[in-house]
Amino acid sequence: MANPAPPHPALALLKRETRLCEGAVPLGLDGGEIRPDSWQLDGERFLFRSATGLGYLYVRGEGIIAQRPPGWDPDEDSLIRNGSVYAAVACINGLYPIHASAVAWQGRVHAFTGPSGAGKSTLTAELTRRGLPLFCDDTLLLDLTRPEAPLCLPGHKRLKLWPDALALTGASPTGKIAQRFDKFYAEPAGGSIKDVLPLASLTFLEEGEHARIEPLHGAEKLLRLQDDHYTTDLFLAASQPDRAGRFAQLAALARGLSLSRFIRPRDTARFAVDAGVAERHVKQHPTVQPDSEPGP
What we know:
Layout: H1 9-17, E1 20-22, E2 38-42, E3 45-49, E4 55-59, E5 63-67, H2 74-92, E6 96-98, E7 100-105, E8 108-113, H3 120-129, E9 134-136, E10 140-143, E11 151-153, E12 159-161, H4 163-169, E13 173-178, E14 181-186, E15 197-207, E16 212-215, H5 218-224, H6 230-239, H7 243-256, E17 258-264, H8 271-283
Parallel strand pairs: 1-5, 8-15, 15-17
Antiparallel strand pairs: 2-3, 3-4, 4-5, 6-10, 7-8, 7-9, 10-11, 11-15, 12-14, 13-14, 16-17
């Protein structure tokens, strides 16, 4: 029997860098004080403070310090550590987050992105019900050692759905994500994948009258990859690329990726039919998707 492939080094790095201890954290990294539910990144340090008094300080090479007030909510603690703090640790250590939820099919990852509320998690939950295992929810973490062939690190966050999405997809809730949020964790009906896999496609969710998926090409791919989500802000704050470096990175990523837009009406009566469009897009996706040099 052949020996199994060694684990991707980034997984061991993230496990090491997210080791946790308790202690006091500062109000700010520059002698000032940051607002509640906000973050600050300074070189190889990251600070997050919540409105409920939870605080987290990450220093590269030293792990995470958590400050927890009396009566703290363990679910909110987990939500923050696996969200903003984890994304910051990844960015400071050279990994690239995309605001997306994703499924796996035949050894490759297919991701869906869009602004908050676009329906990424709901669509992904429905696709898992159709037999496509969950890869990640909300944040897709990429290793861009080879930007033209990005690798996806398996999701560390659980599927999270609002009550209407639970009803729409038939997903079973397993508990609230935190006391102050009316959102629930849910088990993916099709299971989940924990392997490092290549990214095959990234699809942008948009609203429109008729459900259809259209490929993106050239300069439009570059423009669509410039997300304004907080995870992108974290990456830019951590890496501080110059304009030319950022363009080169996005151009390499655009060349190596199949990008599409999924236009569909936000009509619950059509949800199952429109989800079938996404399912076919994933299952019939070609193995190789050549593309020309993106540019004006």
